[in-house]
Structures are given as structure tokens and as C-alpha cells.
Amino acid sequence: MTSAAIPATMAGVEEVEVVVAHRERATLRVGDVFLKIDADQELTDVEVEAMAMAPIPTPQVLWRKPPVLALAALPGKALGRLGEPSTASPAAWAAAGAAARVLHDAPLPPWPGRSVDELASHLDGECEWLVTNGVLPADVVARNRRIAEAALRPWTPVFTHGDLQITHVFVDGDEIAGVIDWSEAAQGDALFDLATLTLGHEEHLGDVLAGYGTDVDLDVIRGWWSWRSLTAARWLVEHGFDPASPGCEFDVLRSRM
């Protein structure tokens, strides 16, 4: 991109913050603008379309010049971080649950998500990798593999965010300011979103469910906690993240023992 192509909203900015960077994508903050650079433009296509369809607050799309997507910064702050205590109020957690319910009640996006068979096959492959490479003890993997089976059942598809981790949910006081990173949005299981939101923060599950407003199968939530932690480990390791950090994925898996 030439300097002439850079919008005036970015002129005069003195600092560029690297929010996240790995081999697949990078996100930079330039003033009040987030620049997402993604190697897979199909994921960006999904993100833009999903945000346009979502009935909950999302970042404003400022411009797109592939491979760059420019989004306006959201007010407030993230609901929390994995491995750290959340300072957000119970009301804010409940608001996140209520927002998830609004999303799940919305019309389905036109593209499908992964099938149960695909998810089960992915789980099998990642469990084999964890054991073969000695990343986790075999008994921890086997125990969580059994727990994950509760999630791998038929469900009625809803509009899911697909990666509703707490760093993607922004709150301003007790209100939802917006939800970011929609590239994995698809038709899917509502309880996967709720499990992703509360992964490593089980103490806030009650608040989330109070906002969500309906009973859920807690065994399925626990199953998705195990599934996500098992299947995320290799990607995290290969992209420079540490699932063994306190309170993160490996601690979630060990807590099931």
C-alpha cells in the first residue's frame, strides 16, 4: 500500500502497536484504527459478512484493501484474559451471555460450520499428537477425550461466533461495547460459544447463563472445554503461544482429573 492510499484517519499517528502477530495473520493498532492483515482472504470475507449480519455490536469497517482490513477501535476493554482473573463485573459477564443469546436467536449465516464427524476426527488427530510428542501425559489426554465426547452429539445449528473467547468481547462498564474477530463465524452449536466464553473462567459460568436466560447441559459445556483445550494446543505451540501458562489450556485439562 502506498502512502497516498493510507486514509486521512491514520495521518499523524506516531505509534504502531502490534496486537497479535503470527504466521497466519497480524493485527496492528494505529491510533483508533485496527489493521488486520490475513493471509487467507476467505476468512476476511467471512468476518466482514458475519459482522454485517450480526445483531449485536461489532467494530465498524472503515475500509478494506486486501490483504488489509481496517476496523474502528471499540470503546471499553476486553472482558478478561485467559490465565488472569477478570476484573469485569458479574453484570458484564451476564451481558455477554445475553449478547450470545441474541446472536444465537438470529437468522443463520448461509455458510455451514464443521460437522460432528469433522470435529471428532480433528480431536482424534490432536490427541494422538499430544501423546506421541509427550506434550501431555496420556492419562490426562484420555480423560479429557472421554469428557469431550459429551459435546460431540447432534445439535440444532445457530448463528455462532465460533471463537467467542473473552479477549474478543469488549465491555464498557456493565454493557457490551462490541465483539471482534468474526472470521470463524458459522452455523454451529450454541454451547460451543458459551464454553469458549467461559474457558478457564468457570467461576463466571453462572453469570453468563443468567444472562443467556435458558438452561443448558453442563456436561456439554465441560465437553467443549476439554475439546477446545485439546485441539488448540498444537496450534498455540506452533504459533508462539504457551498453553502451559498458569490458568490456560493445560491447567483446564488437568483440572478434569
Tell me what you see in this structure.
- With 257 residues, the chain is an alpha+beta fold.
- It folds into two domains: 1-73, Phosphorylase Kinase, domain 1 (2-Layer Sandwich), CATH 3.30.200.20; 74-254, Alpha-Beta Complex (Aminoglycoside 3'-phosphotransferase, Chain: A, domain 2), CATH 3.90.1200.
- The protein is 39% helix and 18% strand.
- It is built from eight helices and ten strands.
- It has helices spanning 41-53, 90-104, 116-132, 138-148, 190-198, 205-212, 218-238, 249-254, and strands spanning 16-21, 25-30, 33-38, 61-65, 68-72, 77-78, 158-160, 169-172, 175-179, 186-188.
- Strands 1-2-3-5-4 form a five-stranded antiparallel β-sheet. Strands 6-8-9 form a three-stranded antiparallel β-sheet, covered by helices on one side.
- The longest helix has 21 residues, at 218-238.
- Residues 1-6 have low confidence and may be disordered.
